[in-house]
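Run: sequence + zinc ion -> complex structure.
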Amino acid sequence: MPEPAPSRVDKIDVERDRGLTLIFGDGRSCFFPNEQLRRDCPCATCRGLRDAGEPAWPRPGGPPSARIEGAELVGAWGVSFQWNDGHSTGIYPFDALRSWCDQEVAADEAR
Ligand SMILES: [Zn+2]
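>> structure
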């Protein structure tokens, strides 16, 4: 039998005030806090800010905490969020989220 693709997502759980939990096809469960998701937003605008050495979040004058106002599946490969600061252009591919998650596990194990 073929191995399930690790980046296949079996379950998506959005807690608007907390973050996103994904359960991947291989059973790995990953939690992503709102602040991390918002700060590491993969859209071109936020990437440009980070490339310029500025935080993509929080922005001056913006809300001090990140809250998910809405979430939408993007095909079968990603998810996008409407944030409480009005930002909504970032699409988070599941395979990128999976590698964030794997990196954190590796960092935990190195501690
Ligand atoms: Zn963004």
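>> summary
Residues 94-110 form the longest helix (17 residues). The mean pLDDT is 92.
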